[in-house]
Amino acid sequence: MSVGTAGPPPLAACAWEMALASLVLIPVAWAVDGPRTTIDWTPELVLLILYFGPVATSFCFVVSAEVGRRISVFAMSNLTLGVPIIGTSASVAFLGERLSLGSLAGFLLIISGVVIAPWAVKRKA
Length: 125
What we know:
This protein is mostly helical. Helices cover 79% and strands 0% of the residues.
């Protein structure tokens, strides 16, 4: 806990924030997609759930929070803009997925934003 702050550390509150968000989003998912009638509980599915939930998501969240404390908000914002580009590129490279026109347009918008943002900040200063 930092000196001069009250309450729990921010990362401790994040677990509750995500749990509450899940409770709110479950009814929304049911309303949009309808209830799931069957789930094929294969060993692979169970392992994926156990890995992606507590391991991959939590680890990446904590690392992201720690990096965010050490670099500027501007740099962190630009780093997080790379997430959809890396994820989509990985799915194309490793899963054989095809890029849609919408994904390509999104890539161009993200890259444009990353290029224009520093220029706009320098121009304003």
